[in-house]
Specification:
It contains 8 helices and no strands. The chain is elongated and about 60 Å long. The protein is mainly α and 202 residues long. The two termini are 24 Å apart. The protein has 2 domains: 113 residues, Orthogonal Bundle (Rna Polymerase Sigma Factor, Chain: A); 71 residues, Winged helix-like DNA-binding domain superfamily/Winged helix DNA-binding domain (Arc Repressor Mutant, subunit A, Orthogonal Bundle).
């Protein structure tokens, strides 16, 4: 999976020009920023959330919030880094709501039936599968088998190109924990991919 990385520490000249145009009364310039970063943002959110549809919803919300808050962007980081932080917060809010809804639903089912429902993983639902090449599909499936914390840490490091310090700040986790999660995620991902490839060749 190849994703172009932007320098997380500075805003590019092209992005700054678009931002300035938008601030001066040309909202169509923001549409160019959406076109530029939407695919990358949705792809990353899809890995984090395990759902293509949720990724689209969160990305749409993130772009709307970014447009509304554009005057607060000071250019101290790349625009995408700022946008991704907004999307990260929106994704975290969605996951909290989903956990609350799931908990209420499980409690209701237990009360009505006395049975424990089976766990379902949204990432394994064929309807959530992204349209990718065969190799990318194998990678997507393997990533979906990682624990959420491991998958997210690996995504932020390998796909988004963030430093350990940035990941630590974004996830509110100690740097040592971040390093451990990424190391473990790489090992587990390698194992899942090896097993998937061997199965295909059998």
């Amino acid at each position: 999976m190849s994703v172009q990385r932007a320098d997380a520490s500075t805003v590019s000249t092209d992005d700054q020009l678009l931002i300035d145009r938008c601030r001066s009364g040309h909202p169509d310039a923001f549409g160019e920023l959406v076109s530029k970063y939407q695919r990358r943002l949705v792809r990353s959110l899809g890995v984090i959330l395990g759902s293509w549809h949720d990724a689209l919803d969160v990305a749409q919300e993130a772009f709307l919030l970014a447009f509304q808050k554009l005057d607060s962007f000071r250019g101290e980081s790349a625009f995408y880094s700022w946008l991704f932080r907004i999307a990260w917060n929106a994704a975290a809010s969605l996951r909290r709501k989903q956990r609350v809804r799931q908990g209420a639903s499980l409690d209701s089912m237990r009360e009505q039936t006395g049975m424990e429902p089976e766990d379902s993983q949204p990432a394994s639902d064929p309807s959530q599968s992204m349209q990718t090449s065969e190799d990318q599909e194998l990678l997507r499936v393997a990533l979906g088998q990682l624990g959420e914390d491991y998958r997210t840490a690996l995504l932020l490091k390998e796909i988004e190109g963030l430093s350990y310090e940035q990941i630590s700040a974004l996830t509110d986790s100690p740097i040592g924990t971040v390093r451990s999660r990424i190391h473990r995620a790489r090992q587990e991902l390698r194992g899942h991919l090896d097993r998937a490839l061997k199965k295909e060749m059998a």
